[in-house]
Amino acid sequence: LSNQLALGLDVGGTKLAGVLMTAEGEIVAKDARHTHGLEGSRAVLNRLFELADKLLASAIEPVCGIGVATPGIVDLQQGIVRFVSTELPGWSNLPIVELISKEFGMSVLIENDGRAAALAEHRLGVGRGCRNFITIVLGTGVGGGIVANNEILRGEHGGGGRLGHISVDPDGPPCTCGNRGCLELYASGPALANSITTAIQDGKPSTLSKEIYINPAQGLSGRQVVEAAKSGDALAQAVISDAGCKLGLAIVQMMRILDPIMIAVGGSISSAGDLLLDPAREILSRYSPPGYPIIPEIVRAKFGRDASVIGAALLGWEAANGTNLKRGNP
Amino acid sequence: LSNQLALGLDVGGTKLAGVLMTAEGEIVAKDARHTHGLEGSRAVLNRLFELADKLLASAIEPVCGIGVATPGIVDLQQGIVRFVSTELPGWSNLPIVELISKEFGMSVLIENDGRAAALAEHRLGVGRGCRNFITIVLGTGVGGGIVANNEILRGEHGGGGRLGHISVDPDGPPCTCGNRGCLELYASGPALANSITTAIQDGKPSTLSKEIYINPAQGLSGRQVVEAAKSGDALAQAVISDAGCKLGLAIVQMMRILDPIMIAVGGSISSAGDLLLDPAREILSRYSPPGYPIIPEIVRAKFGRDASVIGAALLGWEAANGTNLKRGNP
């Protein structure tokens, strides 16, 4: 196996990513495309095939298995996504594993992208050696994955770990998940961009205001908000800080239910670092009683935006070898 | 083993309970005492010893192990409670397993009472055969336990499954756990009694109003509210219904995180039945999107108030035999 590779594919709301990875977790090639999810599932799948083709053609060693990370409620047995919110129309119930497996003649495993990210961080990242560990991914959406007693928590139907849909305000705005005030509405990239845009339109000063007026149709991205905050923009910092507080409230819920030792925060928004995480840490201690002995550590994930695709490659190894990487066997 | 017994003890905020149980899960003797927790941990432990003595003396077959269910964050390895809220002063860090083991010369295991209840319901009650299952116990406090992938979820420090401390209103009143608006503040027995007392004092009519005026010092119990609701008292029904809505909001959080197939509701308040559970079910469907395929069933627990002590007896078997009952081995 040591001279073979696995292919990991990540279907994100914004981009498709792929990596070739060795058994030791070294990435030897990577590539990406825009998702353009609204063009429909067949178009997305064709772009994914094209991306995979290019990576496979570049491989100088044999590729033995494929793992796919995708948003939504993933049915591992059937190899389909059972439910996904609107950014990927037609993606639900598409026989993804079967189609990819036929196209490339290889074993394929599929997993929710947040759980794939948690797998990557638990196996190769900041969560190594943690028996009870959570990864939260703040990107176009907010996802996550839970490791409980060294195992990825999938739940009964593959719906475990939908951490972006923990409500931090039962009276908050409605979410596509049916709940109100979900974390995703406050801490995703689009949510940050929305918040600061509204504040600027209300007359608050920010270095980002010119971006909005120069190019109002395109809108801001979450990354721009993070960059502005890191460059000292006070309004962007306040927006990030508010997202960090909401993140903290969601983590308080998780800690009562799961008692993890560490929470890793990844995804593009996590590059805000302590501007985001310190307010979350502050909420955790404010919402715990004096002497509470089990407050988890909140850290930045190792892999940032790449966690899901690296987790997907780990699943590619699992698909090929039938070993149960997720449960800690070598 | 078939002619031996295990002793289960449950240290509740209101009462101490004990059972002798066969390997088949049959209860052959039971007894109870008031806890009087505010008299201090030594007094509570003495009453527990007395209760255990009486049950052991009544046993006509050998007793081989003892399980103890207790509120709080339980450290299995050290056999202590690491943290418990105020109803049991002095209980934290008391070497409970060592003291009980010395007193009776038997192997002893300790577990959080909510997790013990979940163990009982999963092994012998409504949760049999469910891989992903939650028990919520509504009593003097609100506790619970989670079964994820057939294992009791303990978390890193024994703090997993503190389901009464899921917040259903981040702006709600402060809780002893440090959080705000916890489920326990709305759905415990004392919370129900408080709600209806306030409403009656505000002039709302109820069959319970005379109880308050005849004996204002004693106050109402949650059970009285449940009984009144079942007898048709509209105000008591409204109070139970509101608790059911809050229960539903907490379950929505749990389902996003854990994706269980079934939620069993036990404890004294669960005798309200559908008066409590229908509003919770209604919240689950209202807070799910159309076509959401993974809404868990909400049912009454089999063992009601006895789940924790039955779970404790199962742990007594585990203490004696070293078999890992919790993980499904016979």
Q: Any overview of this molecule?
A:
The structure is a homodimer. By secondary structure, chain A is an alpha/beta fold. In chain A, about 40% of the residues lie in helices and about 20% in strands. Chain A is built from ten helices and twelve strands. A five-stranded mixed beta sheet of chain A has the order 3-2-1-4-7. The first copy, chain A, has a five-stranded mixed beta sheet with strand order 10-9-8-11-12, with helices on both faces. In chain A, strands 5-6 form a two-stranded antiparallel ribbon. In chain A, a hairpin with a 4-residue loop joins strand 2 (about 15-20) and strand 3. In chain A, helix 3 (about 115-125) packs across helix 10, helix 5 packs across helix 7 (about 220-230) and helix 5 runs antiparallel to helix 8 (about 235-260). The first copy, chain A, is globular and about 55 Å long. At the A-B interface, helix 8 of A face helix 8 of B.
Distance between the termini of chain A: 12 Å
The quaternary state of the protein chains shown equals: homodimer
Number of strands of chain A: 12
Strand content of chain A: 15-25%
Q: Please estimate the helix content of chain A.
A: 25-40%
- Widest beta sheet: strand line-up of chain A: 3-2-1-4-7
Helix-strand sequence of chain A = EEEHEEEHEHEEEHHHHHEHEH
Average pLDDT score of chain A: 92
Q: Helical element count of chain A?
A: 10
Unreliable stretches of chain A: 324-330
The largest β sheet of chain A comes out as: 5 strands, mixed
Q: For the CA atoms, what is the radius of gyration of chain A? A: 20 Å
